[in-house]
C-alpha cells in the first residue's frame, strides 16, 4: 500500500500546481479506484465527484471493477472512508463539495445496509458537510429512498418523475450515453444524434437536478461538447486533465464583436516590371498561422490579409535558441543577420550591424516606425538601436535620439529623453498634415492599452496618417508597422486578446493595401517575428464568431511563420527561407546592395 505521507505529498503537489476556478460542469472521476492513488489523486486534481464500485463479499465491502479483481487490502473503508477522515483531521478539506458516488455491484439492499453501517463508524465524516455519499448502480426502489439516513443520497437513472419527497433524496440524474449515440468523441455528433442528445439533456434538466452521462467518449472534444451542452458532471478517467480543461474553457473561449471590413485588393502591380519605391513591413508580434486563423474565423471567414496571393514561410530560430525572441527576430529582419536572443541590432559578438532605416536613410529614403508597444520595445528598437540586451532601455532610448528616423508613433514617452529634433503631434489626425522635418507621436506615457482595454481604432488611424505624412514628403520611404499585442495574448494565454489584436492588425493591413493601390511602386510585406503560446483552435462556432483557443506554452514556439506580400516584386517573397532573408529581399527589390 502507498504510504499516507506519500498520499499527502501527492495531494499538495496537485493542489499547488493546479489552478482550479469555480467550475461548472464538474469532473467525475470514473472508476477512480483504478488510479495508482485512488481518492487522493482525484481530490488533488480538483474532481468534485469520485466513483467507487463496491462488492459485498463475506460481509466486507471491497472496491473493484470485477469480482475476480477483489483484493483484501482494497476495501471501501481503507481506500475511501479512512482517507476522507484523514483529510478532515488534517484540515485539508476542500472548499467545494465532493460527492463519493458508490456504484453497488452486488445485492442492493444488503450492500447498502453495509455501506450505511460502515459510514456510521466515522461520525466525523457524517458531521462534516463537504463529502457526501451517493448510491449508484444497484439501488432500492425510489419509494424506499426516504428510509435511508440523511447522509445517503441516490443517483437516479431514469427520466420518470418522482414524488417531491423522493426527489429530496436524489443527488443527480445519470443516463447511459450509448442509448442515444455511438459518438467516439472525434469531430462532432451526427446530425441525427445531436438533436437527440440535446433533447435528452433538456428533458433531464426539467427535474432541476445535476445530470451526468456515463459511457461517454473521454476526450477534450467530448468534454467541450458536454460542458457547453449543460451537463453538470463529466465522466472521465483523466480527472486532472479534465479539470484543467473544463475549468479554463470559459476563459479560453471568445465570442468576437470586433470586425475588420475586408478590402479586395486591385492587384494592379503584381508581376509587373514596376520599380519599388516604398516598402511597408508589417509585423504581427507572435502572429503564427493559428493566430491568423483565429482572426479569420472570428471575422466571418475572411480578412484583407487572406485576399493576398503571394505567400511564403520563414524559419525563425535565433543563433542561440530553438525559439527566437522578438529582439533576435526583429534584428534578423532589420539587419539581415541572425543573432542571439535579447540582442538588438548587433551580431553574435555584440557588434553593431547597420539596419534598414540607417541604410535607406543614406539612400535618400524617409523612414518610420509605428507600434502598439513602447518605442523602446524589442521589435521597434531593432530598427534603430544597437544594444546587447533588450532590457537596456535607457541605452536604447539614447540610440533613438541618435537615429535617422523621420517619424515614429508608439507608447513609452516616459522612457525617452526629450527629442528636440522631433516635432510632437498631439493627435493622430495632425500627423498627415504636418510639415515637420521629423515627427513623433506618443500613444501613451508607458505601455499601450490593448484593444480590449480601450485602444480603439488607433493603430489603423496611425497607419493611415503616418503613410500620408511620409508620402507627402515626395521621397521614397520605408515604414515598419508592428501590431505588438498579439504576442501579449499568447503569453497570457488569452484567446480574446489574440483574436481582437489580430483583427485590429488586419484593419492596419487594410490601410496599407489601400495605400499601395493608390500609390504605384509600394511593396507590402506582412509577417511575424515568431509564434507565441503554442496556440491552437480546437473548437468554435462560425455562426456566432466564437473561437476556443488552447495553448501548449506561455512562451514563444519555433513554428514556421507565414509571409504575405503585395505589390511590385511581391513574388520574391514566396517560398520557404530564413527570417533574415526578409532584409535581403527588401534591399534586392529596391536594387540596393
Q: Based on helices, strands and strand pairing, what is the structural class?
A: alpha/beta
* Strand arrangement across the biggest beta sheet: 15-16-14-13-17-11-18-23-12-24
Biggest sheet layout: 10 strands, mixed
CATH class label of the largest domain: Alpha Beta
H/I helix tally: 19
Distance between the termini: 74 Å
Overall 3D form: elongated
CATH topology of the largest domain: Alkaline Phosphatase, subunit A
Give the CATH architecture of the largest domain. 3-Layer(aba) Sandwich
Q: List segments where confidence is low: pLDDT < 50 over at least 5 consecutive residues.
A: 16-23
Report the C-alpha radius of gyration, rounded.
31 Å
pLDDT average, as an integer? Answer: 95
Q: What proportion of the residues form beta strands (DSSP E)?
A: 15-25%
Total domain modules: 2
The helix content, as a percent range, equals: 25-40%
Oligomer: single chain
CATH superfamily placement of the largest domain: Alkaline Phosphatase, subunit A
Number of strands: 24
Task: Explain what this protein looks like in three dimensions.
- The chain has about 600 residues and is α/β, with parallel strands linked by helices.
- Strand 20 (about 535-540) and strand 21 form a beta hairpin.
- The chain has 2 domains: about 5-250, Phosphatidylinositol (PI) phosphodiesterase (TIM Barrel, Alpha-Beta Barrel), CATH 3.20.20; about 270-590, Alkaline Phosphatase, subunit A (3-Layer(aba) Sandwich), CATH 3.40.720.10.
- The chain is built from 19 helices and 24 strands.
Amino acid at each position: 500500500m502507498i504510504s499516507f505521507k506519500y498520499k499527502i505529498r501527492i495531494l499538495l503537489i496537485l493542489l499547488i500546481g493546479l489552478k482550479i476556478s469555480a467550475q461548472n460542469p464538474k469532473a467525475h472521476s470514473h472508476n477512480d479506484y483504478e488510479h495508482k492513488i485512488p481518492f487522493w489523486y482525484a481530490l488533488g486534481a480538483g474532481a468534485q465527484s469520485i466513483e467507487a464500485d463496491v462488492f459485498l463479499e463475506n460481509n466486507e465491502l471491497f472496491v473493484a471493477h470485477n469480482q475476480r479483481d477483489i483484493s483484501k487490502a482494497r476495501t471501501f473503508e481503507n481506500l475511501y472512508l479512512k482517507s476522507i477522515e484523514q483529510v478532515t483531521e488534517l484540515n485539508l478539506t476542500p472548499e467545494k463539495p465532493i460527492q463519493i458516488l458508490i456504484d453497488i455491484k452486488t445485492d442492493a439492499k444488503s450492500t447498502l445496509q453495509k455501506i450505511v453501517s460502515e459510514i456510521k463508524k466515522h461520525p466525523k465524516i457524517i458531521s462534516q458537510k463537504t463529502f457526501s455519499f451517493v448510491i449508484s448502480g444497484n439501488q432500492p426502489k425510489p419509494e424506499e429512498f426516504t428510509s435511508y439516513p440523511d447522509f445517503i443520497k441516490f443517483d437516479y437513472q431514469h427520466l420518470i418523475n418522482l414524488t417531491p419527497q423522493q426527489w429530496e433524496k436524489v443527488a443527480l440524474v445519470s443516463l447511459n450515453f450509448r442509448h442515444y449515440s455511438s459518438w467516439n468523441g472525434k469531430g462532432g455528433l451526427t446530425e441525427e444524434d445531436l438533436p437527440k442528445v440535446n433533447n435528452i439533456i433538456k428533458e433531464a434538466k426539467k427535474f432541476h437536478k445535476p445530470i451526468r452521462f456515463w459511457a461517454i467518449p473521454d476526450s477534450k472534444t467530448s468534454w467541450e461538447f458536454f460542458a457547453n451542452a449543460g451537463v453538470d458532471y463529466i465522466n472521465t478517467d483523466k480527472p486532472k486533465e479534465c479539470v484543467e480543461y473544463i475549468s479554463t474553457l470559459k476563459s479560453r473561449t471568445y465570442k468576437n464583436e470586433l470586425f475588420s471590413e475586408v478590402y479586395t485588393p486591385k492587384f494592379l502591380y503584381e508581376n509587373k516590371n514596376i520599380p519599388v519605391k516604398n516598402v511597408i513591413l508589417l509585423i504581427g508580434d507572435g502572429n503564427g498561422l493559428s493566430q491568423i486563423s483565429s482572426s479569420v474565423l472570428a471575422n466571418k471567414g475572411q480578412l484583407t490579409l487572406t485576399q493576398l496571393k503571394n505567400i511564403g514561410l520563414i524559419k525563425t530560430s535565433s543563433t542561440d535558441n530553438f525559439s527566437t525572441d522578438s529582439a533576435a527576430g526583429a534584428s534578423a529582419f532589420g539587419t539581415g543577420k541572425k543573432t542571439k536572443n535579447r540582442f538588438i541590432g548587433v551580431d553574435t559578438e555584440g557588434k553593431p550591424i547597420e539596419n534598414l532605416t540607417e541604410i535607406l536613410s543614406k539612400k535618400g529614403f524617409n523612414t518610420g516606425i509605428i507600434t502598439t508597444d513602447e518605442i523602446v520595445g524589442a521589435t521597434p528598437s531593432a530598427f534603430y538601436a544597437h544594444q546587447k540586451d533588450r532590457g537596456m532601455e535607457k541605452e536604447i532610448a539614447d540610440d533613438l535620439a541618435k537615429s535617422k528616423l523621420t517619424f515614429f508613433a508608439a507608447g513609452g514617452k516616459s522612457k525617452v529623453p526629450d527629442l528636440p529634433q522631433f516635432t510632437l503631434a498631439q493627435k493622430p489626425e495632425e500627423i498627415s498634415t504636418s510639415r515637420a522635418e521629423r515627427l513623433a507621436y506618443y500613444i501613451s506615457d508607458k505601455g499601450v492599452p490593448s484593444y480590449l482595454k480601450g485602444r480603439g481604432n488607433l493603430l489603423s488611424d496611425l497607419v493611415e496618417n503616418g503613410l500620408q505624412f511620409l508620402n507627402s514628403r515626395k521621397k521614397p520611404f520605408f515604414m515598419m508597422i508592428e501590431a505588438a499585442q498579439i504576442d501579449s495574448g499568447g503569453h497570457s494565454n488569452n484567446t480574446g486578446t489574440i483574436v481582437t489584436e489580430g483583427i485590429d492588425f488586419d484593419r492596419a493591413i487594410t490601410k496599407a493595401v489601400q495605400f499601395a493601390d493608390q500609390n504605384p511602386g509600394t511593396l507590402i510585406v506582412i509577417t511575424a517575428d515568431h509564434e507565441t503560446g503554442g496556440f491552437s483552435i480546437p473548437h468554435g462556432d462560425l455562426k456566432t464568431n466564437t473561437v476556443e483557443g488552447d495553448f501548449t506554452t506561455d512562451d514563444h514556439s519555433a513554428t514556421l511563420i507565414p509571409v504575405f506580400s503585395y505589390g511590385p516584386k511581391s513574388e520574391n517573397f514566396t517560398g520557404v527561407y530564413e527570417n533574415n532573408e526578409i532584409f535581403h529581399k527588401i534591399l534586392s527589390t529596391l536594387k540596393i546592395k
